[in-house]
């Protein structure tokens, strides 16, 4: 993470929040705080069985809280895939196009 130009976090939404594994990763990244980290742009991809637009808000807020500790970094984009509860249900999902276009727009 330290040397990355861009970081993309992806998580399923459980009970309106990021998964525990992602939260643990963020907590264990504390040593980056005082370092000369390279990343600036951070993206978040989320999915959930529910389809309402508000579903990822708490997860995004949790990541934003982490990003706020890194004054050179910013949340650059998010993509939410709602209505996904079984394997294969992301195939053809409109969020894939948004994620792809967002990725193409990254300057590296």
TrEMBL record:
Give the range the annotation lists for the signal sequence: none
Q: Which residues form the NADPH-dependent FMN reductase-like domain?
A: 1-35
Give a single Pfam family match: FMN_red
A GO molecular function held by the record? oxidoreductase activity
**UniProt protein name:** NADPH-dependent FMN reductase
Q: Which organism is it from?
A: Bacteroides stercoris
| Classification of source organism | Bacteria, Pseudomonadati, Bacteroidota, Bacteroidia, Bacteroidales
């Amino acid at each position: 993470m330290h040397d990355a130009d861009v970081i993309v976090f992806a998580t399923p939404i459980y009970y309106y929040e990021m998964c525990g594994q992602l939260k643990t990763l963020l907590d264990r990244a504390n040593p980056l705080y005082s370092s000369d980290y390279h990343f600036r742009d951070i993206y978040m991809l989320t999915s959930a069985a529910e389809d309402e637009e508000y579903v990822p808000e708490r997860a995004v807020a949790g990541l934003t809280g982490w990003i706020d500790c890194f004054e050179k970094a910013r949340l650059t984009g998010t993509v939410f895939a709602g209505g996904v509860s079984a394997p294969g249900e992301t195939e053809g999902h409109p969020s894939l196009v948004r994620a792809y276009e967002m990725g193409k727009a990254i300057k590296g």
